[in-house]
Write a structure and sequence with these properties.
By secondary structure, the protein is mainly alpha-helical. Helix content is about 50%, strand content about 5%. It has five helices and two strands; from the N terminus they run H-E-H-H-E-H-H. The radius of gyration is 14 Å and the shape is globular.
Length: about 110
Amino acid sequence: PDPARREAWHRMASLAKRPNVWFDFAALTDFCREEAPEFPTPPRLVRDFADEFGAEKLLWGTDVPGALRAADYARLLGVYRESPLFTEKEKAMLLGENAFQAYGLADN
């Protein structure tokens, strides 16, 4: 990858260090449509981000209907549910629990 783009990405991703910033990763499958139906790259990118900035900073927000260009809803969700790169706790965080934190709903 282009070093300038990688540096720009890292500067943006570093915003995750702030307490009120989360990143939605649902569109990654759309960016990797040519990898369907396995989509090996998106989970690796999410794992790398989680390792550097924390899994608690990530949200899967569906990006429907646009993301449906890559696969159906069940497959998009399955990319992460079925991934061996995440623990069951991380999957729960990525696919729901973090959203409750981000939107202030954790106590409800």
